[in-house]
Amino acid sequence: MAANSLARSLVICCSQRSFLYHFPILLHSRATQRRHPYLWPLSLRYSSTQFVQESTEGDAADVRSRLNVVNILEERGLLESLTSDSLRSACSDTSLPPLRVYCGFDPTAESLHLGNLLGIIVLSWFLRCGHKVVALVGGATGRVGDPSGKSLERPELDHLALDRNVSGISTIISGILGRCHGAKCFSILNNYDWWKDVKLLDFLKDVGRFARMGVMMSKESVRKRLESEQGMSYTEFTYQLLQGYDFLRLFRDEGVSVQIGGSDQWGNITAGTDLIRRILQAEGAYGLTFPLLLKSDGTKFGKSEDGAIWLSPSLLSPYQFYQYLFSVPDSDVVRFLKILTFLSMAEIAQIEKEMQGPGYVPNNAQRRLAEEVTLFVHGEAGLEEARKATEALRPGAETKLDWKIIEAIAEDVPSCSLPYDKVLNISLLDLTVSTGLLESKSAARRLLKQGGLYLNNCRVDSEAKKIEADEIVDGKVILLSAGKKNKMIVRIS
Ligand SMILES: Nc1ncnc2c1ncn2[C@@H]1O[C@H](COP(=O)(O)OP(=O)(O)OP(=O)(O)O)[C@@H](O)[C@H]1O
Ligand SMILES: N[C@@H](Cc1ccc(O)cc1)C(=O)O
Questions:
Q1: Family per UniProt (predicted)?
Q2: 262 Cβ closer than 6 Å to some ligand 1 atom
Q3: pLDDT of 78-89, one tens digit each?
Q4: Which residues contact 107 (CB under 8 A, 6 or more apart)?
Q5: What is the spatial distance between Cα 92 and Cα 74, in angstroms, rounded to a whole number?
């Protein structure tokens, strides 16, 4: 199935009406839209089938349990800026229906990364507080390239890569949110579905006319680039209007009144609230940004930056993902627990207190962080895989190994390849030398006598030990260990 259509089928499809067709409706309904969009009758609010229509009963339950999501985000260090403080009261006003909130992700890579996870976490907080969410994949904006935070123009992606990336990102978002909240609580849209029908002349007339050059030029993403040697293309300059129009469209047609994003998205988000005010003459559209998650060198975690901590298990195994979080420094772990997990603040305060106490087991806080975040991103099965692989690498572990576990740890352990006949029926002592694990057979013999030689995590105590067929895990691989830390994966070539 083509990736775009896969993404579309993950979504319950969006309205196919053309850009032009929207405007008569838009002008006609201005008076209505000056009021809060939730005052529209249901049929107007949901012009397509993207949202499961809320039953009155469901709404009542939401209303009873609505916590103030903005205050929660602020308390946890997930709030950078708000376009208006009145979002605080709007989000907990139980006389209004739940808010609809969106966050966009451009398909600049096949996977999202740990920095992008913040957007999914903030969406999840909105869901936990009884609101509705939309994740938008930028099939159209990805063709243009967001200049925010970039010193150079992005390379153009071909259609195949874009389709693959749209599909990969949609799968990740629907996996995480679906597992936590159920498939009906959110939708995933692709902005290419409306941009593909937009005609340049209509765009200039209906949107461009309302965008002020002074305001556009003053955005940080534009100013910085104009000062640079390379300058900025007209294409990239228009990016803020594309994102701004997305917000307008979602506000007008889907009742989405809040856009969230990392702090680098402020200029694009306010482009949307400005367009909504000017074109629709409507108030009640809000922007909320969260701080960027930075690496220890102060640079942003990014898709197109080096060393991304990918969320896709095919780019980074759940084990490696877990290990990354397991090794964050003590100075970061409490902040990360607040930002990246849903543990209560009281529980995090308790963990912090324990860290300072005398009987604290080192890395306990990191283990909790790694478990919570791996569970959120990779589910029970992913966490189990990460735990088993971690256990398999623990010095002296007796975990029964399987092919998946060995693959998971393969990045962290030296490996070599040998043909089947150079492994089967070969003496273990000889193998430790031929694979380079130990320097000599006498060193291997000494270690064996001390009880420090392991085959697939099982201690070996006979010098005559030879490798048997059923010890070659899944016919593909064996794990040799010399002492507690020195390991070697032998792949059958
Ligand atoms: N390190 C980060 N911390 C918090 N949010 C981030 C981080 N990186 C990206 N985001 C947010 O994720 C959303 C999607 O961003 P985007 O698709 O541009 O990802 P990106 O990693 O910045 O990609 P690229 O590196 O190609 O610019 C935006 O709201 C953006 O602010
Ligand atoms: N500009 C955002 C992605 C995005 C795209 C379209 C939108 O409507 C919103 C957000 C980013 O690159 O991070």
A1: Belongs to the class-I aminoacyl-tRNA synthetase family.
A2: yes
A3: 999 999 999 999
A4: 137, 138, 139, 142, 157, 162, 165, 166, 168, 169
A5: 15
Determine the pLDDT at residue 52: 32
Tokens representing 193 are 């579905």
CA of residue 136 to ligand 2 center, whole Å: 8
Give the bridge partners for 259, in sequence order.
102, 287
Q: How far is the CA of 360 from the centre of ligand 2 (A)?
A: 43
Provide the strand spans (E) within 318-440: 415-418
Q: Check pLDDT > 80 for residue 169.
A: yes
Residue nearest atom 9 of ligand 2, based on CA coordinates = 104
Q: What is the ipTM of this complex?
A: 0.94
Distance 325 CA to ligand 2 centre (A): 27
Ligand 2, residues at Cβ distance < 6 Å:
104-106, 136, 138, 141, 146, 191, 243, 246, 265, 268
Give the ligand with the smallest distance to the CA of 291.
1
SS3 for 70?
Answer: helix
Letter string b/e over residues 178-209, b meaning 16 or more CB atoms within 10 A of that residue's CB: bebeeeebbbbbbbbbbbeebeeebbeebbee
Structure tokens at 254: 């889907």
In this structure, the strands spanning 486-492 and 477-482 are antiparallel
Centroid of ligand 2 to alpha carbon of 104 (angstroms): 4
| Burial of residue 344 (number of CB atoms within 10 Å: 0-12, 13-18, 19+) | exposed
Ligand showing the shortest atom-to-Cα distance for residue 135: 2
Residue 199 Cα to ligand 2 midpoint, Å, equals 21
Beta-strand ranges (E) seen in 71-166 are 81-82, 100-105, 132-137
Is the model's pTM score more than 0.90?
no
| Residues above pLDDT 90, as percent of the chain | 63
- Residue 304 CA: which ligand 1 atom is closest? 25
Ligand (nearest to CA of 269)? 2
DSSP tag of 478 = E
| Burial class of 463 by CB neighbour count within 10 A (0 to 12, 13 to 18, 19+) | middle
CA nearest ligand 1 atom 21, residue? 302
Cα of 76 vs centre of ligand 2, distance in Å, is: 24
Cβ–Cβ under 8 Å, residues 386 and 321: yes
Centre of ligand 2 from the C-alpha of residue 141, in Å? 7
* Residue 63 and residue 130 in contact, taking contact as beta carbons nearer than 8 Å: yes
**Of the bound ligands, which one is closest to the alpha carbon of residue 303?**
1
How far is Cα 447 from Cα 441, in angstroms, rounded to an integer? 10
Closest CA to 102 of 32, 66, 50: 50
